[in-house]
Amino acid sequence: MKTFLESLKISAVALALLTFLLGVVYPLFMWGIGQALFHRQANGRLIYGLNQIVLGSEQIAQSFSSEKYFHPRPSAAGDKGYDAANSSGSNLGPTSQKLIDTLTQRAKDYRTANRLADGDRVPADAVTASGSGLDPHISVQNARLQMARIAAARNLSQDDLSALVDRLTEGRSLGIFGEKRINVLRLNLALDQQTEHR
């Protein structure tokens, strides 16, 4: 019986110690490193406006539907899309008729909104949602196809918009992965600033 009680005591002490080390000390240590070395990233790469009001995050897409703004990728996150608490893709397969109908309608809507001809090619990221439904970037081609609509809505020249798109284009990840891309929130905020200063 004595051996059992000693083993029980050792087990209880080990459990308490490991719970404290791995459940309190280690998370606090990692949080401290994140705050000290990667403060912006650890706090969601938030973008602030006047009076330190949060406008959004560089890492999470949000809906822009006005013709004065660049539109993000479609979203399947939540019932109305762009729901950060419900990140997900559509989970529809390539043979799904619902997916085919959705993509066909999105391509038609994209051509109409951006004054493209019926046969014009539409970038894949203009009609497909990302796996998370919250991808904050669009392709450079997608941005360029939206410029005519925005130029007309804001009374800007396409050369001004093209310069803005070029300035905010991000390179490939680590220089080799993926394609060049543009953060939609950053692009739209820069667009607002450019329009205000005209």
Describe this entry's structure for a reader.
This protein has 2 domains: 2-41; 56-196, no CATH class. It is mostly helical. It has a two-stranded antiparallel ribbon with strand order 1-2. A two-stranded antiparallel ribbon has the order 3-4. A hairpin with a 5-residue loop joins strand 1 and strand 2. The mean pLDDT is 89. The longest helix has 36 residues, at 2-37. It has helices at 2-37, 39-42, 97-113, 140-154, 158-168, 184-196, and strands at 46-48, 54-57, 137-139, 181-183.
Brief overview, please?
The protein is mainly alpha-helical and 198 residues long. It is built from six helices and four strands, in the order ααββαβααβα. The chain is 48% helix and 7% strand.
Topology, pairings included?
Elements: H1 2-37, H2 39-42, E1 46-48, E2 54-57, H3 97-113, E3 137-139, H4 140-154, H5 158-168, E4 181-183, H6 184-196
Antiparallel strand pairs: 1-2, 3-4
